[in-house]
Amino acid sequence: MENSLPQKLRLGIENLKNEGLNLFAIMDIQRLPDQAVTLLTKFNLPVSDQTRIILIGNGGRALWESIPSSQWLQADPVDQHSSAAACRFAQQVLTPDNYQIVYPGETPVALQQFGTVAGWHTPSPLGIGINPQWGLWYAYRVAVITNDPLPEILQPAPPSPCGACAEKPCLSVCPAGALSATSTISMDICASYRLAPNSSCADRCRARLSCPVATEQRYTLDQIQYHYRLSLETLRHYFG
User: Fold this and answer.
1) Is the peptide bond before 104 cis (omega within 30 degrees of 0)?
2) Residue range 38-47, pLDDT digits in tens
3) Is this structure's pTM higher than 0.90?
4) CB-based burial label for 90 (10 Å; 0-12, 13-18, 19+)
5) Are the beta carbons of 24 and 16 closer than 8 angstroms?
6) Residue 32 in contact with residue 53, Cβ under 8 Å?
7) Beta strands in 22-149 (DSSP E)
8) Contact in structure between 104 and 83 (CB atoms under 8 Å)
9) N or C: which end of the chain has fewer CB within 10 A?
10) How far is CA 121 from CA 6, 118, 134, 160, 161, in A?
11) 135 and 213 in contact (C-beta within 8 Å)?
């Protein structure tokens, strides 16, 4: 499909891949659920019926390996690297003053709903999406809104790996008992366990690590600990 795209867009996507941002989608805003659109319009963003959402992410270790060592001296090096790459993409591909980066930032956005529309994942017991190629080892990095008339780039919804997983080790391994085969994760239980002194889940998720899907894409331990230490700070803010 990429060979049929406009050259500027094709080159822009390739440049993002070279920066470790190997997941890319463009979707018509009218495909999104109403609540996802409401979140955007609530903050007076330039949204119209012609708006496109550009979703940029990473799967596996490529992004982590692409960040120069000098950037680790900065605050939030992953966000800084991703945002800078997205800005270069926008300057190369999009009309000036006709786009806005809405994530990362202060505007709440429905990233999982974006990802569902993009065809990136299906639900998992952990409350995050799962993908047959990447397993649980991928992330949303940047979301951009633009009114440029871009072609949609979407994937068919993937089959759920969880449906074919008979043992479901994530359910039994979770030391907090926060997971269930019939409901979504209990964030109160999860947060309480992770915030407890000497928690074994403070800097990693044992249930996530037990997932047998796409284990070859699993983040390095340094990468896992980096992201989970940041998420622990978020939990302290909301649950501490």
Assistant:
1) yes
2) 988 888 888 9
3) yes
4) buried
5) yes
6) yes
7) 23-28, 52-59, 99-103, 138-146
8) yes
9) N
10) 26, 8, 9, 8, 10
11) yes
